[in-house]
Amino acid sequence: MNITIVGTGYVGLVSGACFSEMGSTVTCVDVDEQKIENLKKGILPIYEPGLENLVIENHKEGLLRFTTSLESAAQECDVFFIAVGTPPDEDGSADLQYVLQVARNIGRVINSYTVIVDKSTVPVGTADKVKKVVQESLDKRGSDLEFDVVSNPEFLKEGAAVNDFLSPDRIIVGCDSPRAIKLMKRLYAPFSRNRDKLITMKVRDAEMTKYAVNSMLATKISFMNEMATICERLGVDVENVRKGIGSDQRIGYSFIYPGCGYGGSCFPKDVNALIRTSRDMGVEPHVLASVARRNSLQKEVLGNKIKERFGNDLCGKIFCIWGLSFKPGTDDMREAPAIVLINELVAAGATVHAYDPVAMTQAVGEFSPSFFQENRLRLFKTPYDALVDTDALVLVTEWKTFRQPAFQAMAKVMRQQILFDGRNLYDPGEVQEHGFEYHGIGRNFGG
Ligand code: NAD
Question: Does the keyword Nucleotide-binding apply (predicted)?
């Protein structure tokens, strides 16, 4: 099959690489000329395990192409995927300008029956808007070409995106046209070899499913963060509570880790967008509003704990941050809790030494240039270099490489042996045996 994917970011590039891996011919289109030139040379714009190899190999085979020209991509194209960003608008709703711009352009270039797939996360009703602008473009051309619009939301997780795309839990296809459903079934057949993973439904139901999934996951995290806050006051160890409730099959172990808040390009944006949609419909979203509020508070938890321990004036103090990306396995810094924390520490007068296995280049753009010019924020090449002469280590992102650090060696190079564990990654008893003072999230341990 011939596929065109418009938007070559996390979702577009992973989808393109995976479809080409299954034998489809894929053209990835983006407005970012530099990104396209780099991709042609095998230079990827993002870090995602396993992706580089898929992109380079399939590009060599001629199955994966990159261009800035939608028109050239439209030649002999069966399916267009729209995978551009849907950033939050000022009122929290999803900004659809890029999606609709792409839809308008698709209407200008198609030359036979085409299926247009909304892969971006878009509010209920967007497929109708896409249909309208494509039709307007066709009308302007005096064309009576037929087309269908499908909602096919993406559920990949950054950090495991390739695997998620190649082995999805399910493939949601929202569509009213049997012709388009037939084509989508063919397209996804290679991903459904062991069982039929395609769930078909109405377009609006599919659009809503994506928001409901992300809101449910964000709710689990915020719920657990609230439990941690209550546990801390009660002298209860939330880690024991987590194990206790996770063993209940109705609850399960995933997404119930307390921590310093969720980030990324999806959960915060999608929860806020659903809040907006809900209010527009006259429904006050009590649960969702609390989920978002709890998460904002949670991103302040580490900064508050540090100030409780060291005082509000942090002048002269140096903190080592391990982990900058919003979660392990990605270089994505969007809405990362580390941003809130570092801004807070620097505002209180502290100096920050930071290390992340892959996100340091991305991190540079997230902070005021003055932080670097004045040496208030310094990035180090190894986690141990970042620790030298610091007053405390703050674990923010639970990369695997941080799981079992050499505490004894660390203690020797630090000014004070204090650890703030923003992800409850460590065993407090073991950390204390090495002479560290331990501060976790909702933890009560020892005596
Ligand atoms: P991204 O910002 O990484 O990539 C978007 C790409 O679209 C960029 O390369 C940009 O240059 C390009 N673009 C913008 N306007 C364009 C245009 N008119 N023509 C061609 N290209 C254009 O975004 P992303 O993280 O891949 O997310 C894309 C969508 O998928 C969003 O709606 C997001 O909510 C959703 N989504 C993201 C994830 C994720 O984990 N990142 C997972 C599921 C769904």
Answer: no
